[in-house]
Amino acid sequence: xxxxxxxxxxxxxxxxxxxxxxxxxxxxxxxxxxxxxxxxxxxxxxxxxxxxxxxxxxxxxxxxxxxxxxxxxxxxxxxxxxxxxxxxxxxxxxxxxxxxxxxxxxxxxxxxxxxxxxxxxxxxxxxxxxxxxxxxxxxxxxxxxxxxxxxxxxxxxxxxxxxxxxxxxxxxxxxxxxxxxxxxxxxxxxxxxxxxxxxxxxxxxxxxxxxxxxxxxxxxxxxxxxxxxxxxxxxxxxxxxxxxxxxxxxxxxxxxxxxxxxxxxxxxxxxxxxxxxxxxxxxxxxxxxxxxxxxxxxxxxxxxxxxxxxxxxxxxxxxxxxxxxxxxxxxxxxxxxxxxxxxxxxxxxxxxxxxxxxxxxxxxxxxxxxxxxxxxxxxx
Length: 380
Hints:
The protein is an alpha+beta fold. The protein has one domain. It is built from 7 helices and 16 strands. It has helices at 24-28, 34-46, 68-79, 102-117, 121-125, 219-226, 251-257; strands spanning 2-5, 16-22, 129-140, 144-145, 153-166, 170-177, 180-187, 191-195, 201-202, 230-237, 240-248, 262-274, 280-291, 300-316, 319-334, 340-355. Strands 3, 4, 5, 6, 7, 8, 9, 10, 11, 12, 13, 14, 15 and 16 form a 14-stranded antiparallel β-sheet that branches. Strand 13 (280-291) and strand 14 (300-316) form a beta hairpin. It is globular and about 70 Å long. This is DUF620 domain-containing protein. It holds the Pfam family DUF620.
């Protein structure tokens, strides 16, 4: 991945470090010659604002979207979604469960096997902070009507991301794809996001973890989340016999995350843990949202189903971390006599990861200064 950019102001000056490293493939696609590529990279570094668009070829599909705003919405949907549940602090890895049923007890046993497979409670409890650098490739389909299957098509959208976290509610993600940037974060009090074409806003409800952590990146979050789950059976995933753990979000939590215009009806989470290795190999969640019209009763429902396969586990400082995977998102729209659906796929790869970062202060997780804390903000 490309991490440095020439100093455009001083010919013999030190190179500039990119805040978000970008894949070589993305840099190559920035223009037909070296001069245009560096010009676009400089524009990318400056602001990535609507007034400072990159001069990309006009035939880029942008996930088959009809506008930059639509592309950004899809990018946020797949690149920086949140899960509905808060996780407990890291010292709660072995906390007792409230539900004494066989399903809950089995889930706790499976999580203990997962903890052992990822390095053990001692190693995981020693983690104070982390960072990860990765690259992504995305493809999308058009919004299709009817019940026919949808497939992604067109050119891949390529990008990179940097993810910072401090135990456990402080995190920040910067994601750049095809010259457009999404920033999302949590300062421990609220979760927020902004993009290069849209202003910043806070998410309704208490701060919640980024979904990307649960794609094998943060074993502490994964274990703490599924300690509250129940085991609902077994299933074969990619030739691996897996235990299936399920979490259902309580109605009061869904209500806290809903707004005046949107009601989150359900949000379910599943984890698939290999019986052979103990590791999580698939993470899945489904959310149903009812959009309320300003007038009348013609409600529109949006259902999002995201499935992430998790692969390439490697030990880093004694912690077993997934280094690649693939996420498939299906977006369904019901209501007003029309049923539509769209598919988006993301392939991701971790290039660099580290733990216990020195000097990682609260300033890294501060929300934008102009953030509007509105009780009716939208849900990401």
